[in-house]
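Duplicate of #3305? Posting structure anyway:
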């Protein structure tokens, strides 16, 4: 069995075993964290940070978690809503007047968060993703594909710019700055949108699925793991310095399982973690409010969307292209996070579900 580092409660032995199984099956590396009441009951990692398997995965190794980043951006919006600075039911144009162009006066902030705004497609060049003013101006000029709120279609790359520009107009800060100053800073969480060069040495670059090269792009929608479906972003793009430095708040967040689980413990624990209260309980409950239930036009599958999170039974969260995921269960005040740089073909990737199943084995022992 693969050698793992870290710690775990004996009740959760199945969780490191599940991570080890992914490494034994050929994955390069990964990390898993399970937090209950804001404290880690599992924090393990193993394998290698590089495709050549010469650099060990360390405690502070970080990866691009792709669309798990959306949960961080959503949390920024929830914090602003909790403070009364952002009204989810307000027109987007209240905060971003230029957005009203092309008949978008009826698009509400909650439509952006729930993928029902009708702006799912990124139709610009990849290079423009690195240029915030150009990207947001492009989206402001677009017309919607459907009546806002009437249907859902996964806004894989566009959601971060849409929500992020609202955050910037309200606060004068980028999503990455707001997250760092108002969320990850107070919590001491090692998660970044807009990665500084000082962290480059800790990054485990994304590795395409077996048999694929760095030009591998997300394509056929197949659920949350196909996060960037249809937008032409390649593994090569995601591994570039331009991608790391840019703020693409739907897909360019860097962290590890520990930092993802720590941040998302906020909604799991009623807004307070380790003495830092950043949300009220009512503010946390907003994430859970169903905005849409039905077939998603982009993902091609039934979904339920809350305010920035996918809803799954008694849990909510989301996954990223390549396999990373976060799952929040408020009833147990628990968060499960899995991150890896080792991609698999989305239709064949069950790693996250297997890790979540292992977590529930341990959870039964706590009840």
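Output from current build:
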């Amino acid at each position: 069995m693969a050698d793992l580092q870290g710690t775990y409660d004996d009740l959760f032995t199945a969780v490191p075993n599940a991570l080890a199984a992914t490494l034994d099956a050929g994955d390069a590396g990964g990390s898993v964290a399970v937090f209950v009441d804001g404290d880690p009951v599992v924090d393990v990692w193993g394998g290698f940070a590089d495709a050549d398997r010469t650099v060990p995965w360390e405690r502070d190794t970080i990866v691009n978690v792709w669309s798990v980043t959306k949960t961080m951006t959503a949390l920024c919006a929830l914090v602003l809503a909790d403070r009364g600075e952002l009204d989810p039911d307000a027109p987007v144009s209240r905060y971003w007047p230029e957005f009203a162009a092309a008949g978008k006066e009826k698009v509400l902030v909650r439509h952006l968060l729930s993928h029902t705004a009708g702006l799912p497609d990124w139709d610009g060049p990849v290079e423009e993703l690195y240029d915030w003013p150009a990207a947001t101006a492009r989206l402001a000029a677009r017309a919607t594909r459907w009546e806002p709120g009437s249907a859902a279609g996964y806004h894989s790359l566009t959601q971060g710019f849409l929500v992020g520009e609202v955050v910037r107009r309200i606060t004068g800060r980028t999503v990455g700055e707001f997250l760092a100053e108002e969320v990850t800073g107070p919590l001491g969480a090692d998660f970044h949108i807009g990665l500084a060069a000082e962290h480059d040495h800790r990054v485990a670059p994304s590795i395409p699925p077996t048999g694929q090269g760095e030009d591998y792009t997300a394509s056929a929608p197949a659920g949350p793991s196909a996060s960037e479906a249809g937008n032409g972003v390649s593994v090569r793009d995601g591994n570039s310095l331009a991608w790391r430095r840019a703020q693409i708040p739907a897909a360019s967040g860097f962290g590890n399982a520990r930092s993802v689980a720590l941040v998302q413990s906020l909604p799991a624990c009623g807004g307070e973690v380790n003495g830092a209260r950043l949300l009220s309980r009512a503010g946390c409950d907003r994430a859970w409010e169903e905005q849409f239930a039905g077939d998603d036009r982009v993902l091609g599958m039934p979904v339920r969307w809350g305010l920035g999170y996918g809803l799954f039974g008694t849990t909510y969260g989301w996954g990223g292209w390549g396999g990373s995921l976060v799952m929040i269960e408020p009833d147990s005040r628990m968060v499960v996070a899995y991150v890896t740089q080792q991609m698999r073909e989305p239709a064949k990737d069950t790693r996250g579900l297997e890790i979540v199943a292992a977590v529930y084995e341990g959870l039964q022992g706590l009840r």
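Confirmed duplicate; merging threads. The chain is about 30% helix and 15% strand. The first strand starts at residue 4 and ends at 8.
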